[in-house]
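To close the chapter, one final illustration. This time we ask the reader to focus less on the individual chains and more on the assembly as a whole: which components sit near each other, and how the overall shape emerges from the parts.
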Amino acid sequence: MQSDFGDLNVDGKPASGLASLPSRSSVATNFIAGNLERQVPGHWMCEGWRIAHLETAFRKGAIRIDFKPAMSFNEILEQLPNLTEHEKRQLWNILDQELADQGEESPEFLAELDARIRALDHDARTYSLDEARKMVRDTVTRARR
Amino acid sequence: MYVVKILEAAHEDLRDIVAYISNENPTAAEILGRELLDQAMSLE
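The assembled structure is written out below.
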């Protein structure tokens, strides 16, 4: 990358790395420059190349990053058949995890859970393991008659 | 580790489950009932 603000030849690393900065537009240079100090890793720093140079270069348009717009839902659907089996499985796992994290218990289930937890604090009748095992045996015995 | 308490509601649920399965297969019902209790108590 060459500009009249100094030698910015960094083998393309800044261009790919900067794409992950929190902006999708090449016009948001002020925002990008304002965040460079915190977000540009030290190993990108070249001799004679400073953040101030880059900030100025952004502002004057000497450096331009063209961000691709995000894919629409329909575009994602169109691309699904092009994924490999492995990629599809990865996608499946990611979505499965995301949905699981959202907690989909029904209000009725949560209300019942709350009621049972509260019951623990109100001296609810509890059964020992032996009592519960006996109940199982007795229930089965009745069914066999 | 946890303290596992078998509450009345859980006791009744287990009895209903075992009774329901017992109608078809009492042996399987007894095994399942025992297994459910063992699994619950394994949390302790």
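Chain B has one domain: 8-41. The longest strand of chain B covers residues 6-7. With these observations in hand, you are ready for the problems at the end of the chapter.
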